[in-house]
Amino acid sequence: MGGYLAGLSAEARVSFTVGLVVNPVAGVGGRVGLKGSDGAEVQERAFALGAVPQAAERASVALAELRARRPDVSVLTVAGAMGEAAARAAGIVPEVVFAAADPTSAADTIAAARSLAPQVDLLLFAGGDGTARDVLEAVGDALPVLGIPTGVKMHSAVFAVNPRAAGEVAADYSRLRDAEVVDRVDGSPRLFGHLRVPDVPARVQQRKTGSSGVTPDAVSGIAAELGSLVAPGELLILGPGTTTRAVAAVWGADVPVLGVNVLQDTKLLAADVTADQLLKLVAETPAHIALTPIGGQGFLLGRGNQQLSPEVLRAVGLERLHVVATEAKVVALGGRPLLVDTGDDALDRAFPRYVRVGTGWRRTILYPLNHSPSHPLNHPNHPLNERQS
Amino acid sequence: MSASSPRTPVPVEDARIAPKPGLRRFHQARWDEPLIFELTSPGERGVGVPVTDLPVPALPAGLARAEAPRLPEMSQPHVLRHYMRLSQETLGVDLNVDVGQGTCTMKYSPKVNDSFVRDPRIASLHPLQDEGTVQGVLEILYRLEGLLKEISGMDRVSLQPASGSSAIYANVSMIRAYHASRGEGELRDEIITTQFSHPTNAAAPKTAGYRVITLMPDADGYPDIEALRAAVGPRTAALLITNPEDTGIFNPRIEEFVRLVHEVGGLCCYDQANANGILGITRARDAGFDLCHFNLHKTFSTPHMCGGPAAGASAVTSALEPFLPRPTIEFDGSRYYVDDDRPESIGKIRPFYGVVSNLVRAYAWIMALGAQGLRDVAETSVLNNNYLISKVLEIKGVSLPYARGRRRVEQARYSWEKLNADTGIHSEQIGYRVADFGTHYWTSHHPYLVPEPMTLEPTESYSQADLDEYARILAEVAREAYEEPETVRTAPHNGPIHSMRDASLEDPGTWAVTWRAYRRKLA
Questions:
Q1: What residues pair up with B267 in beta bridges, in sequence order?
Q2: If you placed Cys at B435, which of A100, A212, B56, B492 could pair as Cys (CB 3.0 to 4.6 Å)?
Q3: What is the CATH number of domain A10-209?
Q4: Segment Disordered: which positions (chain B) (predicted)?
Q5: How many angstroms separate the CA of residue B426 from the nearest CA in chain A?
Q6: Is B510 buried (19+), middle (13-18) or exposed (0-12) by CB count in 10 A?
Q7: B123 touching A, CB under 8 A?
Q8: What ipTM describes this predicted complex?
Q9: Residue B212: which of A363, A376, A377 has the nearest Cβ?
């Protein structure tokens, strides 16, 4: 890990140019009790209910903080409500390099991000999970990105903890990490991919909100432990995620971050496999499965890894299923249980109430796993939930 | 910047009757002092060694240097001045209200104890002297073991470990030897600990080759007993647990924890590094533990220094006595002697008897207090802590997570989560700003389980006025965070170092703990 900016401090860079894209309607659904702000219909309803856009104001708080810390910063942005206004409110005269239609749409966010990306060191975007998905689609891992949180309920780990922190982090970071972009689809969180975001390890909120720094030390320990469990010739099925991807990288295997991948003797045997392909493979060769929970969410199965179907899980055997995560990632779950939703209720109930999460060589954390809404940790009045809200 | 002087200056004529200042107008010395290696002046000497005509015995060839070591060449006053300047650029237990280093028990160490240690009758001893010539120090060590047996309820105590970590490692080694002696050494390869126990309780067994299972706290902050039930089994070698944990919360179900582990044949090992609040109130043995350890440099007088000399004590029941580090110190009714003939011993944790200077301090401290005095220490430290909690919780933006409405023992882990959400200021930044008033605090171990943590442990050493001063400093910094956050964000203003890049501490490429490494990496 580390990325192409690793070791290069903010001060060391000669000049610093930030791109800014504001989704002006992000979060409008929040204060009027809607669950999100995606789509023109929801936005119209929100405005009808008296919603006031907050995104530009929050973006300007971030920029003001950034400017205070980096007076030399140059800002490239989009005309009007998609960035220019927020920059000016922060006392910055931006260079406007893109103009969008009014009202704006997701397509404008994507087009704006694409046009800014080649010209900037860091892309700041103000929005929620939907905006993060648009930015992911536009720029992928081409450059460092940081979200200024203005959405309703943000699942993705790409946001600073608050607007001011976004400015703080943008002004001073020395390395990057892969962070999950997660959005709710039909009521369930789904992993869409990863953005490269500044890694500021002293800031616990980063760890709490989502994936944590996948440090080489922790990952090499996890890889060594997993390697010791899998006999020569056996298959190791890796679920999606940065942790499992980093484990594969320790062995020199480059696996896609989103799919389910199969290794044999630490070599990539089959990438991005389907449930049927998996079933065939595990019928012929004994296999292990290694999974990492979705950061901040806790989902082990049923979100973004449906390829691991109940049939595949049964064929492999739950006792050969290994959960891995860095200690920081486990702590970032904030005490909320791991979750399984395989689509097979009986199989869900066959999981133990506590699972051992491998956090390094010979290190595990015994962590609660929930397959029952009646679990006390799932109760909205549970102090941990209260603290998170 | 309002870094200085929120109070009105006291006129000189009133100074002697003025109350303790509301907030200190502190400013630390800044000497811009180079590293001592950079102060070298070729040919300068601290001591002029006389030239001699006497024959000098030849060194073995392998020990002779080809060239002189590159040590700094300096006169005595230059050395003295250098270290005096550095000492003025630090904070420490003899300088400030040092209640902020929670879990470290930064109590006052009576200076008279240092005089015993500096006494030539201790200072000039050599560990290889014949035991007939060191009866006095052996008596002190033997009697100290007796006192710690009484304090813990255990049957034997080894004073050999050099630190808390060393004592935990000794205990883990004895656990392994115990199970091996029963033919279960291979089978029992798992050690259980908790997230709020000191990280050494995971690190030491891992170093010793065990698999380590960590239990997370439940919703009230107690170790999750359901998780323990799921963790124990035939592979369980031991439970290593602190009580109270770093949160200062006493685990009222500790006997049940011990029972669950004993039922599967495991041993229970009590980390009593944080024993200051329970001296004379609870004992490891009474809760059913098989082993425990103390950090003599915390609870028993010697201050917890910057990685300097510590002293640990490992205490065990008679079932584990054969495995104690060797040698032990024994008394045959007329003379004290060293018993090195212990075939089942785990061996040596460090050379010789232990860190004798700190063992002497601990002995003097316990003897000066007596049994009732030890209990007074515990009660005063608990009272101080709960008084400070009541003062701190009056401050906007701070909370005390977990176990609501319950008292803490001798320390407390607070959270600035609300202040951070309101102002964007982080706990570390508050800590830097607190240094502008001549004190400091520690957050917690990483990763932070309590968001924006702050861990305070006032011990028995501080007066009500001291604690009030500390709480006033925190209140002032919290006010600044809300009203003038820039002051906090850019702190410290009154110290010798203005800001530090944390990232450099996490990058081994920039670590330089020796002059050689400094020249290689940074010069």
A1: B238
A2: B492
A3: 3.40.50.10330
A4: 483-502
A5: 8
A6: middle
A7: no
A8: 0.85
A9: A363
